[in-house]
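Page 37, continued from 36.
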């Protein structure tokens, strides 16, 4: 790239194009190999010309006109009015294929295209949008918000952190054409109904019962233990010291909220996320970042702004210098840069970009786009196949994919998540946490992440039809047994040991060192 400045001429050339801009008598010209672009500022006239079209905008008496070869667009600014052919508060923009009309009369605003027309009305805090197929109405009055389409109607009321459709004597109902879901809070009764099943939760003497047409689900709270029984499986939730654990037949998952630490574990992996000052790390301790799978160890250490990660097959090194972060493996280079809140990581096969600007975060791979946005408590993740949206508004959290939508609500320590097929509810009351779905119960647990049926002398047992799982907590020993394997973990002087029938796994955390040994892998 070459830049030349002489008599208000500026020239930049790349291998394929050259660009010239000139500032002389308010003329600015940019030339590329394919097009000419000219911008002139003279008497409030601005002109841009390309090979195929020319566009002119004029600022004279608040008139702005843009002309192309095929279309003309006129915009007038007068007392905050924008119009082409302004007559009785009508505003029209015409193109060859579509015409769009906006009218402002008594707080009505209408936009029409060839296929659809949309109307928004602002009258007494009512806002309505109409398309050919659906009606959508949103009303903001005393914290009421209502949206209606032809097939469904949804109403949300925000009043003292309450959200409801048809709020009458503590009834809360969400109605769609296919399903009815009702939650009633009266004398500690909570009921949810769908077309096929009834679900009832009854709180009496720390017992919680959920019944569907086919199954009974019971949850009991005793000494912060929560047990759910279905016909086929037992699932237990325990809340102690901000630990929440869920286990299914194949996996168990643990989430811990302590000093902004969040941990999730499956049978094969440990995942730890820490949120501190908008930083998210895996196993963050003294600038160490560790992610472990059964086959690989990944460790990053911060020493003089150097970060190194090693797996069984590769070495990864990252260096932080002047907001540049570079990681190299045997086959790939990965670079991330922190400049104006842009973070980019590149491997040979994929591009990963994280952009933090106005709370937008985007990660892109070759196949998927993932975007997270934090604006007014909205968070959205988009992949090629699904949209996932999480919204935090007055203790509401909602996640939606193409097929399912999940909602979490925090109201009087109640947390509910819904998908199209299942309901998941978690209640936190005096350290009580309960979760259920239509077919299964999943645990959110506290200590050592086990589902428990009974708590006696630090013994915790979870039973399914096929397996028995027993966990014992005594002197920092934790033991789990299934029909086929024994698993033991011990936490003593930063040593952690897990044994299965075939392998031993030992992890030592001492002075920020982590060691894992597998008899099968035969390596330390």
């Amino acid at each position: 790239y070459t830049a030349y400045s002489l008599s208000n001429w500026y020239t930049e050339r790349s291998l394929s194009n050259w660009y010239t801009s000139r500032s002389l008598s308010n003329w600015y010209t940019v030339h590329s190999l394919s097009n000419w672009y000219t911008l002139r500022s003279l008497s409030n006239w601005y002109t841009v010309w390309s090979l195929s079209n020319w566009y002119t905008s004029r600022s004279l008496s608040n008139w702005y006109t843009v002309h192309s070869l095929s279309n003309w667009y006129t915009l007038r600014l007068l007392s905050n009015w924008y119009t082409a052919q302004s007559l009785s508060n009508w505003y029209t923009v015409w193109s060859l294929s579509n015409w769009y009309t906006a009218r402002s009369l008594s707080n009505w605003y209408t936009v029409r295209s060839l296929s659809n027309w949309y109307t928004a009305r602002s009258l007494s805090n009512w806002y309505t949008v109409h398309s050919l197929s659906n009606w959508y109405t949103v009303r903001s009055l005393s914290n009421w918000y209502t949206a209606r389409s032809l097939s469904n109607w949804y109403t949300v009321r925000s009043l003292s952190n309450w959200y409801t459709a048809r709020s009458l004597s503590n009834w809360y109902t969400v109605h769609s054409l296919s399903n009815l879901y009702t939650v009633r809070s009266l004398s500690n009764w909570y009921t949810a109904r769908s077309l096929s099943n009834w679900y009832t939760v009854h709180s009496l003497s720390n017992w919680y019962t959920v019944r569907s047409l086919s199954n009974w689900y019971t949850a009991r709270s005793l000494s912060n233990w929560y047990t759910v029984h279905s016909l086929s499986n037992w699932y237990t939730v325990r809340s102690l010291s901000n630990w929440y654990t869920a286990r299914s037949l194949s996996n168990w998952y643990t989430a811990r909220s302590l000093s902004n630490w969040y941990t999730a574990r499956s049978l094969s992996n440990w995942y730890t996320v820490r949120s501190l000052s908008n930083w998210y790390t895996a196993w963050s301790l003294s600038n160490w970042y560790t992610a472990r799978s059964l086959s690989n160890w990944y460790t990053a250490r911060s020493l003089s702004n150097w970060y190194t990660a090693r797996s069984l097959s590769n070495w990864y090194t990252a260096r932080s210098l002047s907001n540049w972060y570079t990681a190299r493996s045997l086959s790939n280079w990965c670079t991330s840069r922190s400049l104006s809140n842009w973070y980019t990581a590149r491997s040979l096969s994929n591009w990963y970009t994280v952009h933090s600007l106005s709370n937008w975060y985007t990660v892109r791979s070759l196949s998927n786009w993932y975007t997270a946005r934090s604006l007014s408590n909205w968070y959205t993740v988009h992949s090629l196949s699904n949209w996932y949206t999480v919204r935090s508004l007055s203790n509401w959290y909602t996640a939606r994919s193409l097929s399912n939508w999940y909602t979490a609500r925090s109201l009087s320590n109640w947390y509910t998540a819904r998908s199209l097929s299942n309901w998941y509810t978690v209640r936190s009351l005096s350290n009580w946490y309960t979760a259920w779905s239509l077919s299964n119960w999943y645990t959110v647990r506290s200590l050592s992440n086990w589902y428990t049926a009974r708590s006696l002398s630090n013994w915790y047992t979870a039973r399914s039809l096929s397996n028995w799982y027993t966990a014992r907590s005594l002197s920092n020993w934790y033991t789990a047994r299934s029909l086929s394997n024994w698993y033991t973990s011990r936490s003593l002087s930063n040593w952690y040991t897990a044994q299965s029938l075939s392998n031993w796994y030992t992890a030592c955390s001492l002075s920020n060192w982590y060691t894992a040994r597998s008899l099968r892998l035969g390596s330390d």
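Residues 325 and 336 are 5 Å apart (CA to CA). Flag for discussion at group meeting. The first strand starts at residue 2 and ends at 6.
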